[in-house]
Design goal:
single chain; 244 residues; 8-stranded parallel beta barrel; 8 strands; binds 2-phosphoglycolic acid
Length: 244
């Protein structure tokens, strides 16, 4: 059980359409019943839904984020890309950067750093994902990998308060596996020592069952939730269980 102010961030990945937004009514009603300032709820839908979702959530405490952005601060000839200024203009307040699904398709620490820099300049807050692969975990180089991702990703970023770090081990994403409680506590502590001033969240297979264990890890500031955030009842129950 916790009384801490926690972040619950929904990462919808490439799921959802306009009809999906109706399912959020339950979440809106739920948040209206809760005492203010207990937690922060952020939805990161696909780009196509940022604008309608921001309108739907206008009179609520729930905020909207994007799942990636281009590194250029300016408009430009980049087919298929969206920059942080554009995201901000349609109501996004956050952007997820450095997600492993994008790192695996070639995003380098350097590129992620450029994206973070541009996003902060545009006035967005950043959900900065870091994490080790299974082979790195087996080789026991997790801390080394995380230190490198933090050092390079946050190079020249002064205001760490605008950064929420999401520790997401690659092997835990969508797999049903999570780190051992003691290991996770130690890793989160380590991340906090390397990125002073940033909140640190956990992501990777957070669900209705394992939330009972995860909520006991008292140095965590919240969760980045993929699959389990797509069904409103599950998402609400995860939040409720965190505080029970
Ligand atoms: P998952 O995804 O909860 O479905 O494992 C988390 C994420 O990729 O952010």
């Amino acid at each position: 059980m916790t009384n801490k102010y926690m972040y619950f961030i929904a990462n919808w990945k490439m799921f959802g359409d306009l009809r999906t937004l109706n399912t959020l009514n339950k979440v809106i009603i739920f948040t209206k019943k809760i005492k203010k300032n207990k937690f922060k709820l952020i939805y990161c839908p696909p780009s196509t839904l940022i604008c309608p979702l921001a309108k739907t959530l206008k009179k609520t405490s729930i905020e909207v984020g994007a799942q990636n952005c281009h590194e250029s601060e300016n408009y430009g000839p980049y087919t298929g890309q969206i920059n942080s200024k554009m995201l901000k203009s349609v109501g996004a307040k956050y952007v997820i950067l450095g997600h492993s699904e994008n790192r695996l398709s070639g995003e380098s620490d350097k590129l992620i750093n450029l994206k973070i820099t541009a996003a902060i300049k545009a006035g967005l807050k950043v959900i900065f994902c870091i994490g080790e692969s299974l082979s790195e975990k087996r080789k026991k180089v997790t801390k080394k990998i995380l230190a490198k991702q933090i050092k390079n990703g946050l190079n020249k970023i002064k205001n760490k308060k605008r950064i929420l770090i999401a520790y997401e081990p690659f092997w835990a994403i969508g797999s049903g596996l999570i780190p051992k409680e003691s290991e996770l506590f130690e890793t989160i502590d380590y991340i906090k020592s390397k990125a002073r001033g940033s909140k640190v969240l956990y992501g990777g297979s957070v669900n209705l069952k394992n939330i009972n264990n995860l909520k006991n890890i008292n140095n965590l500031d919240g969760f980045l939730i993929g699959g389990a955030s797509q069904v409103s009842n599950n998402f609400i129950d995860i939040i409720k269980k965190t505080y029970n």
